[in-house]
Amino acid sequence: MLIQNASWITMDRAASVVVPVFRKTFPAGSPVRSAVLEVTCDGVYEAVLNGRRVGSFILAPGWTEYRRRLQVQSYDITGLLAENNTLEITVANGWFRRTNAPWTGTRNPDEFLPAMLIAALHLVREDGSEETFLTDESWEVSESTVTLSGIFLGEDVDMTREPAFVPAITCDFPKSMLVPQEGPEVHEQETVYPCASFRTPRGEWVIDFGQNLTGYMAFDLEARAGERLSFSTAEVLDREGNFYTANYRSARSQLHYICRDGYQSYKPRFTFFGFRYLRIDEAPEGFSADRVRAVVLHSEMKRTGWLESSDSMLNQLFSNILWSQKGNYLDIPTDCPQRDERYGWTGDGQIFCRTATYQYDVRQFFRKWLADVRAAQHENGWVPEVVPSLTAYKPGGGAWSDAVTIIPWQLYQTYGDLSFLSDMYDAMEKWIAYIPTVSTTENLWTGCWTYGDWLALDAPEDYHPATIELAKRGYSNDDLICSAFYANSVSIVIHAGRLLGRDVSAYEALYERIAAAYKARFGGCLNTQTEKVLTLHFNLADHPQELADVLAEQIVACGTKLQTGLLGTPYLLHELSRYGHSDIAWSLLLRREYPGWLYSVSKGATTVWEHWDGIRPDGTFWDDDMNSYNHYAYGSVADWVFGVACGIQPAEPGFARVRIAPQPDPRPGSLCAVLDTVHGRIRSFWKYTGQGIRYEIDTPVPAEIILGGKSRMVGKGRYVFGEAD
Ligand code: BGC
Questions:
Q1: What is the 335 CA–ligand 1 centroid distance (Å)?
Q2: CA-CA distance, 484 to 718, in Å (whole number)?
Q3: Relative to the CA of 451, which ligand 1 atom is closest?
Q4: What 3-state DSSP class applies to 202?
Q5: Ligand 1 centroid to 375 CA: how many Å?
Q6: In the prediction, which pLDDT does 109 show?
């Protein structure tokens, strides 16, 4: 990359929070055949050539494990060139110089770096001559109109400010971590218009977009210089109908805009928000809500999965799951897009991964993020709880760090691409080699920190945990959880190793020892729903059918309610169905009361909530803390809908052959799943007709179709079955 020859440049100034804009003016010389701009920075940038934006990558260069991997973008700018050119590149804090959330208890040292830019502009002229402009002291820099910017803060803009350019200075900063752009770009995806504008009981002026989304507001207006416009964002209104922002915690999430004279339009350039509602805190007289729109942002990815039923609440849940993926696949897989986190929590990432691979083609998205997992992995083998890592660099513990094995394995299952396994194999091995170095019991994983069955509902009333963290993780045994995930990771390494032609005999022996130790230690004390579900899911039960029957009875005995948290929930319906209890799985899915997937739908949710009772039946909130309304983890139930309710299973990795074994239920009336695999489109539809069940199945590859216990082997094609078949 030519950029390796360029120098990092910055602004020589006393610390100022105003965002700098770098400038280079240059003549084209003679007609240009091609012009390419390579660029990156220690924040997020926007490049503008002759008044036109370069490319459509929002929040470039994205978020990576920056100190090891910083992506360089390469833009073809031939079409933007003029005879005399002005290139301006504004560099804001973004994720690189972000502030850490206060709860991390640490400052991010990179927060104190100055804004720095590095770029190379290469021209090839029609006459064959070439010229390269590299960032150096010939570039200029000025304070821009963006006076404050941050991922959590939002943006302050003063359009009355005039630039005052001075020479930029070069600075010493590494270039060894520069890598070519690997992930899909984040783009503006769609525009959502307000569905209502109203005054709250407190008198606030609020716009409702009808959809909780991730992106920013955009507006246009006619104004006089100095007039102000300010917006705050919120996901929900409180019980009284007032604007509610406490769940954002320390994330300010506002836009403050000072107008210039005349007609103008604006949208934030260096931040994003998670919101459904906007409060107009200040506006020039005559400003009206129909001047405002919401722009949805997420990483570029092609839709591959569709679900539809005859139950409108279920359809709303499907929509919520889709929107939670859109809202949280913004360059990295995040836990939530709104409060002072928006981090790549590894646990959440692995929990939702299978659903994610069904809804969208996420191959490139994960290729890039898994490269960051490798870069963030400690040399001892531990994987941080969030990737890209926080400066605190805490190990993730069981189920979180196991993302290093679970995600590549799932990608291989969905797409059949072995490179996900070969790329990650060393990292997987390092991870399972780390566990015995910290465990207090041989062949198990005990005595270590984990978030456990986070947010589970099964802690008894009289349970008084020592810390608030314990209160949030239910009653499942942490040692059991960690050991079950340890067994699973070793099993994945064995399967991946066999496919890659490695010698896995030592891992096979290790797995046998883990399974035996697990059964001996935990087999007799499987109490919570999650303990049973994990034991079943990871094939660690001596008598799985009996255990599944006990699980089913336990669920029915407590009113057909799930009690599971982040770790048990994704597998719960799968395990019930696997052992003949699909009726209970369906009851859990269709439950409209708390706790249940359709409860949040009944409360008007348009994305998946972090808590089953994020808003309680009486309209009060579960809590101000840890209360996201766009948290995809429980949306992982969609993979049960695709894979069990509609029955689409890969019989071979990548769906090269399929098994289609739907588990219908009369309550939703009908259900249809469409899945675009790398081998073509699979469709599985069923409908209760009055005379029985009609099935329609399309398969692009040979399939085994199993209906009512009867198996048929078919070639590719379209098949219709009535009740008589
Ligand atoms: C996140 C979770 C995450 C958890 C760790 C939270 O703050 O939002 O989804 O996995 O921390 O338990």
A1: 7
A2: 41
A3: 12
A4: coil
A5: 21
A6: 87
Per the annotation, the verdict on 341 as an active-site residue is yes
User: Does the global pTM surpass 0.90?
Assistant: yes
Residues constituting the chain: 725
pLDDT, position 15: 66
The DSSP bridge pattern shows strands 648-650 and 329-330 to be unpaired
Active-site position among 341, 385, 429, 531: 341
Residues of the chain with pLDDT under 50: 724-725
Classify 251 as helix, strand or coil. Answer: coil
For residue 641, the 8-state DSSP code is: I
Task: Give the integer Cα–Cα distance in Å for 237 and 227.
Answer: 28
**170 Cβ neighbours under 8 A, 6+ residues apart:** 7, 8, 9, 10, 135, 136, 137
Pocket of ligand 1 (CB under 6 A): 335-336, 341, 345, 347-348, 451, 454, 626
Residue 469 Cα: closest atom of ligand 1? 12
CA atoms within 13 A on the CB side of 557: 8
| Nearest-atom index, ligand 1, CA of 455 | 12
Pairwise CA distance, residues 524 & 527, whole Å = 9
**Segments of 13-153 assigned E as strands:** 20-27, 32-41, 44-49, 52-53, 70-76, 84-92, 117-125, 130-134, 140-143, 146-150
Non-local (6+) Cβ contacts of 629 within 8 A are 212, 235, 236, 247, 276, 338, 605, 607, 609, 610, 614
Pairing of strands 273-282, 205-223: antiparallel
- How far does the centroid of ligand 1 lie from the alpha carbon of residue 721, in Å? 45
pLDDT in tens, 380-403: 999 999 999 976 557 778 999 999
Letter string b/e over residues 670-692, b meaning 16 or more CB atoms within 10 A of that residue's CB? bbbbbbbbbbeebbbbbbbeeee
Amino acid letter, residue 385: E
